[in-house]
Amino acid sequence: GPPFPSDVDPGYSWRFSVPYRIVVPLDGSRFGERALPSAISLAERTGGALDLITVATPTVAPSPVRDQAMPGDESRERGKARATEYLNEVAERIRASGYEGTLARDVIAPGNAARSIVRYLAEVDADLVVMTTHGRGAWQRAWLGSVADGMVRQGRCPVLLLRERDAGPLSATGSPRKVVIPLDGSEAAEVAISTAESFLESGKTTVELLLVLQEPMPMATSYLPHAVAEGGLLEARKEKARSYLAEIQKRLQEKGFSAEARVISAGDAGHGILQHLERSGADMVSLATRGRGGAARLVLGSVADKVIRTAPVPVLVSRREGEA
Questions:
Q1: What is the pLDDT of residues 102-134, one digit of tens each?
Q2: Strand partners of residue 105
Q3: How far apart are CA 199 and CA 92, in angstroms?
Q4: CA-CA distance, 149 to 153, in Å (whole number)?
Q5: How far from 88 is each of 43, 52, 94, CA to CA, in Å?
Q6: What is the dihedral of CA 50, 144, 290, 235, to 10 degrees?
Q7: Of 33-37, 151-155, 260-264, which gets the smallest average pLDDT?
Q8: How many angstroms separate the first and last alpha carbons of the chain?
Q9: For residue 118, which of 210, 207, 25 has the smallest C-alpha distance?
Q10: Beta carbons of 177 and 14 less than 8 angstroms apart
């Protein structure tokens, strides 16, 4: 059969400006392997290393004695051997596809998969994680899974989350045509710009800087001066936002990138971003997250988590500066 799932187009041509170490977490499923074509293409264009990892799962061998447990050490060794065999088989398919770059394989010891992988990423100084995710509706968090959840919330390197083919334009060829970067006016959020720059190609990619202003709650009054004041306040905020985005737009243009700026208003920033992605024709969104651990879920969930869970395009997630 084909080296990778046949319903994924490996024609990504995104270009990095510096060599990267790209890590692809695999779970043994064909769905997880859908991240490979994109990761391979990225590795070829960076001249960096492609690193396949999986977490070993203790394996129980058949026993002539019913319900007899296998010794712990033996079970772990069998699990490690099975994981190693799987990664070797995937590596053979990658080589057969014509990839000639650096290709590493690492089996992570059994344990909490998310914490183990986050720790591994720090140890090898990874530059990017590429992995697939399921999208199952706006209010279901389970699709993210413990591993992807850990990468986004606790990992220090960017994560490129790829959707199923029918959930977004994952088969786009060439450099991304349009990358949307949502900002909130803070310098911390601008890390999403520097991360996305490595994916941009002058003359082929347009960056759309997006700032969503929350619409003021309608006042429970018919008094006209109140409505006028409310509208004037929103317009003043829009003008300030336009000025802010114009400065960033200018910096990107000075680097040779095509950049646009857009300010919109919405009742909720997360929904505003998602609605804009549906209308804009973007094929990637880059955004920064903040906060770590369980307590940070509420902070992340306000905007970034909503976009991560439901965006119809690949999502490039970066940790805000100072929070890695």
A1: 999 999 988 788 888 889 999 999 999 998 876
A2: 52
A3: 28
A4: 6
A5: 18, 10, 10
A6: 110
A7: 151-155
A8: 41
A9: 25
A10: no
Phi, psi torsion values for 130, nearest 5 degrees: -120, 125
What is the β-pairing status of strands 159-162 and 315-319? antiparallel
User: In angstroms, how far is CA 108 from the centroid of its own chain?
Assistant: 22
Question: Is residue 137 scored above 50 in pLDDT?
Answer: no
Rg over alpha carbons for the chain, rounded to the nearest Å, is: 22
pLDDT, tens digit, 9 for 90 and up, residues 188-198: 889 999 888 87
Neighbours of 96 (CB within 10 A): 10
How many whole angstroms separate alpha carbon 18 and alpha carbon 47? 8
Q: Which two tokens stand for residue 212?
A: 């969503």
CB atoms within 10 A of CB 233: 11
Helix (H, G, I), strand (E, B) or coil at 211: strand
Distance of CA 59 to the CA centre of its chain: 31
The pair phi, psi for residue 204, each rounded to 5°, is -120, -25
Looking at residue 94, the DSSP 8-state letter turns out to be H
Angle at 211 between CA 243 and CA 231, to 5 degrees: 75
**Which tokens in the block code for residue 7?**
């319903």
Residues 45 and 174: their CA atoms lie apart, in Å, by: 12
* CA–CA gap between residue 110 and residue 60 (Å, rounded): 14
- Check: CB of residue 275 under 8 Å from CB of residue 220: no
Higher pLDDT pick, 26 / 323:
26
Tell me how many helices (H) and strands (E) the chain has: 9, 10
Residues forming beta bridges with residue 106, ordered by sequence position: 53
Q: How far apart are CA 262 and CA 189, in angstroms?
A: 16
